Amino acid sequence: MENLLMKDGHHRLLAEFRYTPPKVERGYANQTLFVDVSNNTIAARPVDERTKRTFIGGRGFGLWLLWNAVKGTTRWNDPENEVILSSGPIGGTTVYPGAGKSIAVSLSPLTETVVDSNVGGYFGPLLKFAGWDAIELQGIAEEEVIVFIDGNQGLVQILTAPHESSDSYVLPGQIVDLFAQSPEERRAVSSVTSGPGAEHSLMGCLNVSFYDVRRQFVRLKQAGRGGIGTVFRHKKVKALVVKYVGVKGDSNVPADYADLASVGSKMHREICEQDPLMNDMRGGGTTMLTRIMNDFDLLPVHNYRFGSHPEAKNLYKSEFTPYFSLGIPDGCWYGCTLACARCVDRLTPRTGPYQGQVVHVDAPEYETVAAVGSNCGIFDPHAVLEANFYCDLYGIDTISYGTALAFAMECYETGILNPERAGGLDLRFGNAAAMLELLHQMASGTGFGPTFGLGVRRMKRIFAEKYGADPRFLLDIGMECKGLEYSEYVSKESIAQQAGYGLANKGPQHDEAWLIFMDAVSKQIPTFEDKAEALHYFPMFRTWFGLNGLCKLPWNDVEPADNKKVHSPRVAARVPEHVGNYIRLFKAVTGRQDVNEPEDLVRMSEPAYNFQRLFNLKMGYGTREHDAIPYRSMGPVTVEEYESRAERYDSQLREVDIDPQGKSTLEKVALLRAHREKRYQLLVDAVYRRRGWTADGIPTLETVRRLEIDYPDVLDLLKQHNVQ
Amino acid sequence: MKVLVFAPELCDAQLGCEETCSLTWFKEANHDKSAIRILEAEGRTGKYTANVCTQCGQCIDVCPTLAIQRDKRGVVRINKDLCVGCLSCVGFCPYGAMRMHPDYTVPFKCVACGSCAKSCPTGALAVLDLPDAPLTATEKRLLGGV
Questions:
Q1: Stretch A141-151: mean pLDDT
Q2: What was the ipTM of the complex prediction?
């Protein structure tokens, strides 16, 4: 390998580390890889039993490693900040669908505290089989580098990479060409890259690759949230690369292969039979959600002002499937038969550096469709696909991009922005050409790109200070919490979802809790205590996926045929048979015999979850004031919004004994707001109590002791905040 | 394409075919390791069906690594070197004829080798040359179309 790299003359070897690849045991390699690109240090660090017990893996390992690497004063662009990737003990299992996730953890440039983001692609599993449960990437390189791990040879190298493009459309393919020694080895190489958009904004994403043997090109999945790509490029790392040849059904060396194979093949069968009758994820991924969200008034339109739009049908699944190549495997890891990672083999961009060329792009997720589509008033599937293509290659998070653009568009339409302030762009809702041009401005760091790329929180400050905009209005309509842009659901009619967003550790992403249907549509959790219980159970349960290297989708995006027949609606929402599958899966891989009940999974997640809350506290956040959410996520901010659903809001006022008769819309907006804001605070109280936190949202001493995360520095932190 | 076919009226359910199959491919007499399974027909005592691969090739489109391909005889075969043991093919076989056994991570299936047919005393089994199955999406793609 060295010879190949040396002889082309472009890649100088800066550091090399040789190791004997350990045999994976029951889902763990039992060591993590530390790489510091400031001083070209590479080291192996053992994983002890307490860390495995407390943090499990994946996001848990990321949190623990980062906690130990940074101080409370560390900022995202300090050398000691890290980008960590880890899969988890179940990660790399090929026999159960959705078992190849990696979780990226870092200090976020957007939130200035810890963030986690999960991603498909082959990196995490191959990293583990190469002998590493996690990689910690620290430091800032002097020149552009690639970090390469060869899991068969037992070799880690830091190489200069002066000539490769940072463009994530080109670079991952170049990496496969460089490191695969034969066509068969192509799928043994996976990379982590970002792009030029991440270099010029705070909302950079990571792209994690896998080689598609049928289409014969590299596919990309994204760790989108929180700007981890920005950190990555700030470190002058062009790519992390892992190569491991030899993945087999037992590479994870499970304790009980027979049960693993039994539960896995059962699940494949269920997907084969049920998916076509349910969500048809195999036929179109998550694009099916647009219609459902529009039907239930939950699809963000025009910066979350509305929940539906007559033109939304132009963004339904049926408008995207003609672009997709279907009928062949599309898992982002081996054995994921739910196969939501559809692919557009041929797309011809109308703008930008690839204008007129035929390119390929992974199919958009619902989140992308809603973010750059309906939320910006753009109902053109081609524009959505093109935005998806450029976001990926520039290394930009589609969710933050769309939500921030929807905010900028509302600012434009209300006169806060104008073409002069917006890089010459006409940022009216619905202007697809401007939406794409702003992406190119971000990538080149020109025009409105640099200001916009700072995200909603910083734009609010700038627009108030520089342009004299009303800060209260900006606070109401800027859809961010903790500095992170909202994901794509209108939460106005579900107070549980408002808290699901507001209390999420990393900021308003729905991967902690998606309770809208349960709360607002099927009314399964009527009381505050019911909602608080759901806001305990679901965030913990969903956290569990991120500790183990699992995808959430096979949990409830397909269900056993009898799920809703044999269980009451409230129980069915937890999909008990699948929870049982996960218990079997965890036991079969790790051999742990103390995990038998659904509550055991919830208990397993609590330490990492609470530790993340404490991590926020360590970084200067993590208290009640940081769980405040913009009013746009709670109710109608403007007269126009109220009047668009006046009947609904009027009747809600009547329910709380307020007669809307004879009141102006402005008065009614204020009355409804007072009511909803009060209810939000009451729910926050109930959730804090349920989670074992103080009234200020800090885990109590009793909680950290119960969860065995009472490390000396945690106790010091609590003491500093007068939690005794 | 070569396909193992079964004549139910001739079967006496002695299961010698299952034993022959597992002996041929796994060197042990173990019905759980046989690619062919003789089952009593539902609701028809004394009548039998054979569960065995029809070489339809639908599993070719499920395999993430192209480990499943059709050979020159038209028989669908698994390349053990390429297989990552995901067992997607087991779950997606429309006939339940792709098999797995916990002793192995690679699934197995009937490859129309004919050993069982040779050993069947009643002549209930035979390998026949049948018209080719329609091309799968994968095969079309590999042939240059999409």
A1: 98
A2: 0.96
| pLDDT tens digit sequence for A323-371 | 999 899 999 999 999 999 999 999 999 999 999 999 999 999 999 999 9
Q: Is B126 on the interface with A (CB under 8 A)?
A: no
Please count the structural domains in chain B.
Answer: 1
Residue A14 near residue A159 (C-beta atoms within 8 A): yes
Residues 6 or more apart in contact with residue A7 via CB below 8 angstroms: none
Q: Which of B79, B86, B143 to mutate to test the interface with A (most CBs of A within 10 A)?
A: B86
Inter-chain contact B102–A94, Cβ cutoff 8 Å?
A: no
Kindly report the nearest CA distance between residue B46 and chain A, in angstroms: 30
Q: Sorting pLDDT into bands at 50, 70 and 90, what band is B42?
A: confident
CB A447 within 8 A of CB A423: yes
Considering the domain architecture, whether residues A184 and A279 belong to the same structural domain is answered as no
Do A461 and A584 reside in the same domain of the chain?
no
Q: How many domains does chain A have?
A: 3
Task: Compute the count of residue pairs across chains A and B with CB atoms less than 8 Å apart.
Answer: 84
Distance, in angstroms, between B2 CA and closest chain A CA? Answer: 25
The predicted structure's pLDDT at residue A5: 54
Q: Which H helix or E strand runs over A649?
A: helix A646-655
- Render pLDDT for A185-197 as a digit per residue (tens, 0 to 9): 999 999 999 999 9
Task: Judge: B85–A272 Cβ closer than 8 Å, yes or no.
Answer: no
SS3 A115: strand
Q: pLDDT band at residue A45, thresholds of 50, 70 and 90? A: very high
How far, in Å, CA of A410 to CA of A598, rounded?
44
Is the confidence at residue B90, as pLDDT, over 70? yes
Task: Let me know whether A458 and A504 are in one domain.
Answer: no
Please state at what angle helix A381-394 crosses helix A432-444, rounded to 10 degrees: 10
Cβ of B91 within 8 Å of Cβ of A95? The answer is no
Residues A495-524: what's their mean pLDDT? 94
pLDDT for residue A311:
98
Does the residue B137 lie in any domain? no
**A473 and A580 together in one domain:** no
**Contact between residue A96 and residue A548 where contact means Cβ atoms under 8 Å apart:** no
Q: Which two tokens stand for residue A254?
A: 């499970």
